[in-house]
Amino acid sequence: MKSLLKFITCGSVDDGKSTLIGHMLYEAKLLFADQERALELDSRLGSRGGKIDYSLLLDGLLAEREQGITIDVAYRYFTTDHRSFIVADTPGHEEYTRNMAVGASFADLAVILVDATKGIITQTKRHTRICALMGIKHLVLAVNKMDLVGFDTDKFDAIKEEFARITTEFQFESIQVIPVSATEGDNITTKSPNTPWYKGLALLPYLENVEVHASDDVKPFMMPIQRVCRPDHTFRGFQGQIEAGSIAVGDELITLPSHEKAKVKRILVTDQDRNSAHAGQPVTIQLDREVDVSRGCVFTKDNQLQEADGFSSTILWMDDSVLTPGKDVLVKVGTKILPGTVTAIKHKIDINTGNTVTADQLVKNELATCEISLSDGIVFDSFEKNKSIGGFILIDRVTNMTSACGVIEEALQSSDREDRNDSEVTRDVRAQQKGQQPLTIWLSGQTDNTALAKEVEKRLVARGYHTMLVDNSLGESVRQLAGYARLLNDAGLLALVPAGSTNGNDQAIAQEIIGQAFLPIEAGASIEEAAKEIVKRVVKALIPDSYSI
Amino acid sequence: MDNLMLDSIDATTHLDQLEAEAIYIIREVAAECENPVMLYSIGKDSSVMLHLALKAFYPEKPPFPFLHIDTTWKFKEMTEFRDRKAEELGIKMLVHSNQEGIEQGINPFDHGSAYTDIMKTQALKQGLDKYGFTAAFGGGRRDEEKSRAKERIFSFRNKNHAWDPKNQRPEMWKLFNTRINKGESIRVFPISNWTEKDIWQYIRRENIDIVPLYFAKERPVVNRDGQMIMVDDERMKLQPGEKVEMAKMRFRTLGCYPLTGGAASEADTLDAIIEETLGAVSSERTTRVIDQEEAGSMERRKREGYF
C-alpha cells in the first residue's frame, strides 16, 4: 500500500507558492479534465495574459482572487504511482502567520520557497522558525525563479549556504535545496537541462521518495483517553488513539495521574477484536480491574511522562488582543482542557535572529517563552518527545478564540513558579487577572458613611468590579486604614474606606501611603444620590487617561 | 483469546490513517460538545460517516442522533434506504422539512436558486435551531470545491449559522477548540481530508451499504443540458421536446432528483465504479447543477449558512 505524505508550501507573497503546486499538479497530469478546462477558462481573466495561471488552481477564496494573494490554508490532494499527498498551501504574508502555523502543525515536511533574485529574506527565516516550532523535521528549500537569474550556480550556492547557516540552531532531520522555476517548470516533475550542476532529484520525485516517518512504534506506549465507553453496566472501555508504541492483551498499564496498575483484558481496534495495537490506531481498551480514569487521563506502559501544575513553554501568540502576564485562559493539552494563567512572559524571541528580547507583553504573531500555571495537575511530555501531549493551545475565556499555540519545554515545580513568588507577581499582575485598576475610594464628609460605602460597593460589584470594604468601626488610625487600603490595592482590588470626618492633613497622609490609586471623595447628603455620583466618579477614574483627578 | 485473532502488525495504510483521523474527531465532539448531531444526506459520504460513527463508539451506539434535511424531492430509493438503515442499526434518525416552503409549493422547477435556499439552507437552520444542536457533523470534503478546501475541520458558525472565511479559528495539531458561546455552533467535517477515490475504496474495504442509485441500471431519464435527469415520480416537469427514455446509467452524487445529473455507465459493481472513478475525466461536482454557476457561488452560499 502507498504511504501518505502531508506537506506544506510556504514563502513570501511573491515567491510563487500557488504557482509551484498548481504547476506540479498540472504537469503530473493529476488534474481532472474539467478542472483543467476551468483553469484554462479562468486564466483568460488571470494575470498572465492568456497563458495558464497555475496559481488559480489553489487560490480559492474570493478575497484572494481579488487581491492576488493567499490568505488561508488551502488543502489539495493528489496521488502518484508512488505516494498519496496532502499539500497545504499556506499564506506568506506576515499578517497571516497564524494560518501558516496551522498548516505547519499538520505537516511532516515543508517546502519553503525563496525568490532567487532576492535570496533569503526575513520571512524565510520566520517561516523556518515556525516550521521548527510546530514540529516539522524535514525541509525542502525551493529556490524559485532560477530562470530570472540565468540559472546562475553561484547565486544558488550562496542561498544554499546562507540557509544552512540559519538552520543550524534547529533539529531538522533532512534539508534538500532544489533550484526551480515554478512558472516555466524547471526541476518540478523532471530534471531540468538548465541546471546540469544540480545533482539531486526534481521536486516531485524527491517528495515521492523522502522518508519522514521515524518509527513511532518503538517509543514507549502512550495513549491519552478521549472518552469512557459504557454501553451498559457490563462493559467499561477506554477510547483513544495510541500516540506512541504498542500494546497487547495481557500487558500491564499504568494509569495517570491516578498511578494505578492494571492489565489489558481486551483490545478493540475500532470494532474489531485484536491481540495487539500500535501507534496511530483508534482503540477501545478494557482493563482487568476498576481504575479511576476519565477523559484527559493517560495510559502508559513504563511511566516516563511528567506531571505538574505548571510548565515553561514557547508560544506563538495568534490573537488580535495583546497578551500581558496574568491573562486567564483555558489550556488544552492532549485530551485535557483546564483553566490556567499565563503567569510570566520570560522573553520574546526575535523571529529573524532567534535572539531573546525582554518583553512585558505580546502582540499577534510574536513568539515568546512563557510560564503557564494550571488550576490542577496534568500529565504531559516535552514536545520533542511526544508531540500529542507536548503541544497545547490557549483559548480565550471570553471570546473562545484559539489565542495561542505552544510547545511545552519543562515542568515548573510549584515553588519555581512566579505566581507563588511575591517579588515577581506585582500589583499589576494581580489587577490584570481581575481585569481592573486598583483604586482606593476614600469617602469623607459624614460622621459615619459606612452605609454609603456599602451601597457604593454593591453597585460596583454589580458592574463586575472586585472590591473590598474596609471596616472602620474599631477606631483605627488614618495610617492603619490607609495601610489596609494599600494592601487591598496590591491584591488588585478596589478598596472602599468609609473614612468619616477626616481632615485635609489626614488625606495627605493617606495619599502618601496609598499613592496614585488614592481617590478621595467628599460624600453628599442622600445615600442614594451620593452613591450614584460616587460610582460615576469611580468608573471615570478607572478609565485610562482620566486617571489623574 | 482466540489464536486466530489478527495481530495488527500490518503497516498503516493511507485509508487507515484517514479512518483514524475521522474517528478521533468524532470522539472529540462526542466528549466535548454539549448537543451534537450528525447530518445525514443518504449519499455515499453520509454512508461512510455513519459507518465511522458506528466504529468510533463500538460497542456503544453513537451517542448522538442523525438529522436528515428532507427537501421532499429526494429520490424515492433514498428515503427508503434512510428508513431501512435507521431501523436496522437502531440509531435515532430525525427528519426535518421546511413546512412553510412545502405550503408555498417551493419546487426545483419553478424556483431555481430560491429552492436551494428555502428547502436546504433555511430548512437546515430550522432543523438545527429546533433541537438546539451545538455541533453538527457534515460529510464535506476539501477536494470537492475550492472554498471547502480552505475550511477548517471544526468550522465555527455565528448565531445566524454564517461562516466567516477571513476569521477562522487557528486549528493546531489535533487540539480542536470546541468552545462556543450561547447561540453559536460548530460544523465539524471529519472526512475533510478524504478524496472521492478514498471514499469508494473505503466503501469497498468495509463493505458499506450504499443507495442502489450509485450502481448502473436501466432507468427512465431525460437528457437535459448534457446530463441525464431521472424521472423519479410524476412531479417531474418535462420541457418542450424532452422525451423520457430508458438508459443504463448511474449517479456519482445524490441529491434532489430533478437537480442531480447522472451519466451513462455500465458500472454495476463496486469494482467497476472504482475503476470508472480512478479513470474519471470529470470531478464529481460537475454533475451537481448547483455548482455550475460562476466561480465563488459555493463560498457565498456557505457564508449564508449552507452546509
What does this structure look like?
The complex is a heterodimer of chains A (549) and B (307). With 549 residues, chain A is an alpha+beta fold. Chain A has helices at 17-27, 33-43, 62-67, 97-106, 122-133, 153-167, 203-209, 387-390, 427-434, 450-462, 478-490, 504-514, 527-542, and strands spanning 3-10, 74-79, 83-89, 109-115, 138-144, 174-179, 222-224, 227-229, 237-241, 246-248, 252-256, 260-269, 272-274, 276-278, 282-287, 298-300, 306-317, 327-333, 336-349, 356-357, 367-380, 391-396, 402-411, 439-444, 467-469, 494-500, 518-522. In chain A, strands 7, 8, 9, 11, 12, 13, 15 and 16 form an eight-stranded antiparallel beta sheet that branches. The longest helix of chain A is centred in the last third of the chain and has 16 residues, at 527-542. The model of chain A is unreliable at 60-69, 416-423 and 544-549 (pLDDT under 50). Chain B folds into two domains: 15-198 and 297-303, Rossmann fold, CATH 3.40.50.620; 208-291, no CATH class. The longest helix of chain B has 20 residues, at 112-131. Classes of the chains: A alpha+beta (549), B alpha/beta (307). At the A-B interface, helix 2, helix 3, strand 2, helix 4 and strand 9 of A face helix 1 and helix 2 of B.
Give the helix/strand layout.
The complex is a heterodimer of chains A (549) and B (307).
Chain A: E1 3-10, H1 17-27, H2 33-43, H3 62-67, E2 74-79, E3 83-89, H4 97-106, E4 109-115, H5 122-133, E5 138-144, H6 153-167, E6 174-179, H7 203-209, E7 222-224, E8 227-229, E9 237-241, E10 246-248, E11 252-256, E12 260-269, E13 272-274, E14 276-278, E15 282-287, E16 298-300, E17 306-317, E18 327-333, E19 336-349, E20 356-357, E21 367-380, H8 387-390, E22 391-396, E23 402-411, H9 427-434, E24 439-444, H10 450-462, E25 467-469, H11 478-490, E26 494-500, H12 504-514, E27 518-522, H13 527-542
Parallel strand pairs in A: 1-3, 1-4, 4-5, 5-6, 24-26, 24-27, 25-26
Antiparallel strand pairs in A: 2-3, 7-16, 8-9, 9-15, 10-14, 11-12, 11-16, 12-13, 12-15, 17-21, 17-23, 18-19, 18-22, 19-20, 19-21, 22-23
Helix pairs in contact in A: 10-13, 11-12
Chain B: H1 14-32, E1 36-39, H2 44-57, E2 66-69, H3 76-89, E3 93-96, H4 99-103, H5 112-131, E4 135-137, E5 154-157, E6 185-188, H6 196-206, E7 217-224, E8 227-230, E9 245-250, E10 261-264, H7 270-278, H8 297-303
Parallel strand pairs in B: 1-2, 1-4, 2-3, 4-6
Antiparallel strand pairs in B: 5-6, 7-8, 7-9, 8-10, 9-10
Helix pairs in contact in B: 1-2, 6-7
